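User: Show me a protein chain along with its predicted structure.
Assistant: Here is one chain, sequence first, then structure tokens.
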Amino acid sequence: MQRRSLCQASLAATALFATGVRAADPFPAKPIRVIVPYAAGGGPDLQVRQIAPKFGEALGQAIVVENKVGAAGVLAAQYVAQAAPDGYTLLMGSNTHLIQKIMQPDLRFDPLNDFVPVSNMGASPTVMVVRADSPYKTVEDVIAAAKANPGKMNYCSGGIGTSAHLAGATLVSLAGLKATHIPLKGSVEITASLLRGDTDFAFPVAGTGVPQVKGGKLRALAVTSAARLKELPDVPTLFEVMRNELTVQESWFGFWAPARTPVDVVNKIHAAANKVLMDPALRALFESSGSTAAVTESAQAFAAFVRTENRKWAEIVRLTGVTA
């Protein structure tokens, strides 16, 4: 009986030791999922997929990109907010999530408190575009046409409250126009809508719009960055035309983890992300589509940036009167 008790105690100790070893496995010990709230094939989705292989190499684990589309990013955010805070499920968080919460305070997620901002990854202005054979050659042409035909012109976006929507609404508000917003199912539908003639102009993010401009399908009239884009040097900024600081708008995305994710895990993901963003080839790839690789000094610096952006977008929502 005594021998049996000793054996049982030994087995229990061995099991406890093994459990302790597993619990102490260094992060990451399995693949990491990145939840993208946009349709596959769009600019933000493509950029995450460009980052994923090298990001996985830096962490020593595969990165699995999953698209959870719906409600302008809200569904993906709610999903990740409820995930285990262990670093294995990340959200491609963006200014769109801030905007949605500003417009809909009752949403069941809080971008400032339900997540830990880990690392900014990319930033991209929107590009005001029309069909390549459109009669509109400048922003002023569009404004003049809209004023001559109040209520008859429209613009499209990937959904209510997206960066494309706010950029268009900002132009309409500042110019005193009457134009209709047409929300589509996703940003990938913007070009098709313009080409069919369903809509007159749009503000897709540069990652989506610049390739279409270079491909000859769309004509760029302005960009919402603070300075002209390297890829579109002859296209003015919207600020040059409107002379209002609120026209300077960039869509950014980064990795967010659920709140209470351990600090050491957050810092490890941040370090890996920064390592990837320093790759000259990747930076050139971003620039080719009108975007920039956005490096943050620390997770804490990214968190401060997110809070500053929240205040700015709140002002833009007030200006435009956009509601969900």
